[in-house]
């Protein structure tokens, strides 16, 4: 299979709500703003999209809506993870059926499978659906860390295209670049360390910060990928406070607050994520000012 050229700044899109329901009009504005800001792909219904509190119908509708809005202008990487392999396969099949360019599949959470279980999980998805799959490794949330050796084994499978690595471990991209098949896609899932990840051979970042600052994040990633680390550091210094501020409260509440400050959507999150607490709002506003978006 030929994999799409997934690189650069890739926002992990929020899912806006209004009065408890998905706000499709706000989602349309948010996606258009990302494309106008020069991002290189988009990810609907990932962690930042509050996927764990969406119904299956809502999940699939958001993927379909994103593909409709994007209309081929950038790749769409559909979130499609689950802690049941059969459920993940269903979501990846849906992503393929509605025209996604790839699927982002998180390691199964809560049930904490072994490395062999993880391999079998992704191998079953690989065998069931012919769509590029990115492994999503975020042990701080899932309770399981897929090893570099398991990723390397999976990279030999025809539909396993790459990894979103949210560990913040700067040794990993170097190791995976050596051990995985040529062309294997290495994406950071950690905004503060994404410049370093690219310096070690990564190809970009699936980013929370890009929701709020798409143009600066696109510029940051483009500079880093081009090897212009003087320019990349300049952008990083402008954005580092925002990277941190968007996690001063349970994500994505700070991101939704920031976007509400810009008039783009309601700050509403879905329980158990509560509204952004008052105490962190001044720091978020200041970080937005430093990033040049407020």
Structure, briefly:
With 294 residues, the chain is of the alpha/beta class.
Broad shape? globular
Query: What pattern of helices and strands is seen along the backbone?
Result: EEEHHEHEHEHHEHEHEHHHH
Q: What is the residue-averaged pLDDT?
A: 97
CATH superfamily: Aldolase class I
The description of the largest β-sheet is: 7 strands, parallel
Strand residues, percent: 5-15%
Structural class: alpha/beta
Total domain count:
1
User: In CATH's first tier, which class applies?
Assistant: Alpha Beta
CATH architecture assignment name: Alpha-Beta Barrel
Topology-level CATH name: TIM Barrel
List the total number of helices: 12
Helix percentage: 40-55%
Q: Give me the side-by-side strand order of the main sheet.
A: 1-9-8-7-6-5-4
End-to-end separation in angstroms reads 43 Å
Number of strands: 9
Poorly predicted runs of 5 or more residues: none
> Cα-atom Rg, whole angstroms?
18 Å
What would your notes on this structure say?
The protein is an alpha/beta fold. It has a single domain, classed as TIM Barrel. The protein is 45% helix and 12% strand. It is built from twelve helices and nine strands. It has a seven-stranded parallel sheet. Strands 2-3 form a two-stranded antiparallel sheet. Strand 7, helix 7 and strand 8 (185-188) form a beta-alpha-beta unit. Helix 6 (148-155) runs parallel beside helix 7, helix 9 (214-225) runs antiparallel to helix 10 (229-245) and helix 10 packs antiparallel against helix 12. The longest helix is centred in the C-terminal third of the chain and has 17 residues, at 229-245. The N and C termini lie far apart (43 Å).
């Amino acid at each position: 299979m030929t994999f799409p050229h997934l690189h650069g700044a890739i926002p992990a899109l929020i899912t806006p709500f209004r009065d408890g329901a998905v706000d499709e009009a706000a989602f349309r504005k948010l996606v258009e703003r990302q494309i106008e800001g020069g991002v290189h792909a988009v990810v609907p219904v990932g962690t930042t999209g509050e996927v764990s509190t969406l119904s299956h119908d809502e999940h699939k509708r958001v993927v379909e809506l994103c593909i409709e809005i994007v209309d081929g202008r950038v790749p769409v990487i559909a979130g499609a993870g689950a802690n049941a392999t059969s459920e993940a396969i269903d979501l990846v099949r849906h992503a393929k059926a509605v025209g996604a360019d790839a699927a982002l599949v998180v390691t199964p959470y809560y049930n904490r499978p072994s490395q062999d279980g993880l391999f079998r999980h992704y191998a079953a998805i690989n065998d069931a659906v012919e769509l590029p799959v990115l492994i999503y490794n975020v042990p701080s949330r899932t309770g399981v860390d897929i090893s570099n050796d398991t990723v390397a084994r999976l990279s030999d499978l025809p539909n396993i295209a790459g990894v979103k690595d949210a560990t913040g471990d700067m040794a990993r991209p170097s190791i995976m670049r050596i051990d995985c098949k040529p062309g294997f896609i290495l994406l950071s899932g950690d905004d503060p360390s994404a410049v370093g990840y690219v310096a070690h051979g990564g190809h970009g970042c699936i980013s929370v910060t890009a929701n709020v600052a798409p143009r600066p994040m696109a510029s940051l990633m483009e500079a880093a990928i081009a090897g212009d680390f003087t320019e990349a550091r300049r952008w990083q210094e402008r954005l580092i406070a925002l990277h941190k501020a968007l996690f001063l409260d349970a994500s994505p509440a700070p991101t939704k607050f920031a976007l509400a400050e810009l008039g783009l959507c309601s700050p509403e999150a879905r329980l158990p994520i509560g509204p952004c607490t008052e105490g962190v709002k001044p720091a978020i506003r200041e970080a937005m000012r430093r990033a040049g978006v407020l």
